TrEMBL record:
Catalytic activity field: N(6)-[(R)-lipoyl]-L-lysyl-[protein] + 2-oxoglutarate + H(+) = N(6)-[(R)-S(8)-succinyldihydrolipoyl]-L-lysyl-[protein] + CO2
PANTHER family (UniProt xref): PYRUVATE DEHYDROGENASE E1 COMPONENT BETA SUBUNIT, PYRUVATE DEHYDROGENASE E1 COMPONENT SUBUNIT BETA
Pfam families: E1_dh, Transket_pyr, Transketolase_C
Underlying gene: bkdA
Name of the top EC class for this enzyme: transferase
GO molecular function ontology, one term from the record: dihydrolipoyllysine-residue succinyltransferase activity
CDD domains recorded: TPP_E1_PDC_ADC_BCADC, TPP_PYR_E1-PDHc-beta_like
Protein name, as recorded: dihydrolipoyllysine-residue succinyltransferase
Amino acid sequence: MTHVQERLRPHSTPSDRTDLAHLHRDMLRIRMFEDRAAALYRDGVIRGFVHLSVGQEAVPVGTAAALRPDDVITSTHRGHGHVLAKGLDLSGAFAELFGREAGTNRGRGGSMHIADPALGIFGANGIVGAGVPIAAGAATAAMLRQDGKVAVSFFGDGATSTGAFHEGATLAGDWRLPLILLCENNQFSEFSSTHLKAPGLMEARAAAYGMSFHRLDGNDVVAMADAMEDIVAAVRRGEGPAFVEAVTFRARGHYEGDPLKYRDAELAAAWAERDPILLAETRLRAGGTSEAEIASVHASVTEEIEQAVAAAMAGQEPSAGSLFEYVRTPPKPVVEPALPADAEPVRYSRAVKAALRRELERDPSVFVAGIDVGEGGNVFGLTRGLAADFPGRVRDTPIAESAIVGAGVGAAMAGMRPVMEIMYSDFVAVCLDQIMNQAAKLRYMTGGKVSVPLTIRTQFGAGRSSGAQHSQAIEALLAHIPGLQVVMPSTPADAYGLLRSAIQEDSPVVVIEHRLLYEKTGPGFAPDHVVPIGKAKVLREGTDATVVSVSRMARDSLAVAESLAAEGISVEVVDLRTVAPIDWETVLGSLAKTNRLVIAQEAVLDFGIGAEIAARAVDEGFWTLDAPVLRVGAPFTPAPYAPVLEKEWVVGQRDIEDAIRRILAV
């Protein structure tokens, strides 16, 4: 027995509250599923990575016994046991591992990403620890709705070192969420023994987050079920989040094919004597169950597994033509109204606030969260007063960007429409996993079973000596991510209309505002004003050259075009408004009209959206070009701090005008 086992409270008799026979059968289903999966992987039927949880079956089964069908779980790359215990169909699970269309996720997720949101399974996850903030988001939805649901996030002991874990746990503690963080301490973090970690570390972490702590025998399904019934009930009553350390053992390697050279044979033998199924069957015998009855259960589950494998193998593979399905939800039809002629001019910052207020009033599933958006009213004062007007729905968060976005992902999956603020666009780098690998991919990886109606608001802008970490334009980075939409409004009316459309959209949208535009004014708009995502706008008609730009550069381009008009130069200005997806019809249509193209971006020139537009212009618009495509952008350096250097770095009207004159001279 290990030093960890010695600290566990023994459970020698079944509880009256638990149906041991039922728990035993559920563990057998998981064990036999994974044994069969191992053989099929060995035989080349299952492709990709497979991580098995053999030896850990008591943890998910004991936990699931305490959950309601509508409670939520998030899982890990080693998640078969969790999802099967929560009710996932065996045949669908096998078909998913086989990459079949009949798979739980239509073959788009595979072993590491298996999910079924209809069963409260918000996804296994290939990113260690990433499910913790998502579970916190599901718990946030439950708290705001007061519907009595709880969320459980399963993770391994190795995940407790990740930033996502710490940020999610911090948010859960601060908001007192109905969340259970369940660590399966299976003695190994990939290839490293967890005995190398300081003893008592899990308990100390729980205390730091203000959570109750419970160390359970993860190989004793009765102990797990009994304890989890009490823990879940307390969390459901509103007593705050809990941290559970279920001490168990990973009987197989980190992955199938792992040579296990790091494994201590004596340790493995000691844990084999406490195999959870062996312990359960010993109890069953002690309670009067015969060998024949136990054998009958084995035979029944074996038959169930084989029938599921056969059904899954008979399924069709996805058609090649379905490659582009489920990347995002179908766009909602949006008709942009004309701006009223008699409307008072509006400041950009007021338009943003008005859009948030309008959507908070219109839809009770909308909430706003971020650093200092509540009492502080946002670093620029954009949300000031909203927290008082919408109690509980405009929420301050810890300084934890991964938790902010991850909670938005989980809440969106739970049916809310969160608007999560990242204070500066530079800070997107801190939470890029939750944007790129979670929000943007979950609809695809679930085969269309889930929508993620998440809006992420952020801002950027150089010119005020904010330095390299508070100035950069990163729209090209975000636009490169399939499943993500990115909008960059240049006018108050567009800021209002695009933000409202983003909040109403069923796929994730990043709204990037320009802080130097916040106090700029523009034509007013009606309260029902909306702007379609993915639709550019021609700000000025022209015949000699086209300038395609976005955000502040669109305003600068318009100013240049109006100045050049005095010289008889006719410039057409296209404001993209959305950089993902780009409105190619408008861009290429304008090029066909003027035969010359300049692209202006505030971001560094190399590898930016201008390069993509230029490539598409040369490809699809080649025969309409009368001159080379020119790009305007910042030099390929970080944004400098010194005013004299920043003035040299920031692009503006003079650069745009020079490019237009150059292209007209060809």
